[in-house]
Specification:
With 173 residues, the chain is an alpha/beta fold. It has one domain: TIM Barrel. A five-stranded parallel sheet has the order 1-2-3-4-5. Strands 6-7 form a two-stranded parallel ribbon. Strand 4, helix 6 and strand 5 form a beta-alpha-beta unit. Helix 1 packs parallel to helix 3 and helix 3 packs parallel to helix 5. The longest helix has 14 residues. It is globular and about 45 Å long. The two termini are 24 Å apart.
Length: 173
């Protein structure tokens, strides 16, 4: 799966922007995303709000709470992705989520819908490469780039596994 932003990396670093979808509302999310794209963002990470965002800091936790209070769903995130793909086809789009919302939606259904929406990649914060077999199979089937997290404390062998399994980029935490 070619990543829409990979070709830009030849000219220097890319700008990746995270947005919690639905905070403060869906219309504003769309406008914020279009504004940061027009200001030079190469990739938009569309954050799926989750009720237990334990890996996130307080700012994203509160953003998730607000988005969930407004009823934002994974289907809404995919609808925003489709809208952004149509409006700015050159921009990379990554769904940034915990695994639970994807499991509840259905892994195959999610991957098919993400592909249809024009999503480039998927980053699941609590998916570890060592347990990602079925997940990777579904992503590959639907031309979605898996993106894994790597910590500075990760052993070299694990970083190698993460780098080999990831496409587009590795998320360094």
């Amino acid at each position: 799966m070619p990543i829409r932003f990979a070709s830009r990396l030849d000219s220097g670093p890319g700008l990746v922007v995270y947005i919690t979808v639905g905070d403060p509302d869906l219309a504003t999310t769309r406008n914020i995303a279009l504004s940061v794209i027009d200001a030079g963002a190469d990739v938009i990470e569309l954050g799926v709000p989750f009720s237990d965002p334990l890996a996130d800091g307080p700012v994203i936790q509160r953003a998730s709470e607000r988005a969930l209070r407004h009823g934002t769903t994974l289907a809404d995130v995919l609808a925003i992705a489709a809208d952004l793909r149509a409006a700015r086809p050159e921009t990379g789009l990554v769904v940034f989520s915990y695994y639970n919302p994807i499991l509840r939606f259905g892994l195959e259904r999610f991957c098919a819908a993400a592909e249809q929406a024009g999503v480039d990649g998927v980053l699941v914060t609590d998916m570890i490469v060592e347990e990602a077999g079925e997940y990777l199979t579904h992503l590959e089937r639907h031309n979605l780039a898996p993106i894994f997290l790597a910590a500075p404390t990760s052993p070299d062998e694990r970083v190698d596994r993460i780098a080999k399994a990831s496409r587009g980029f590795v998320y360094a935490i």
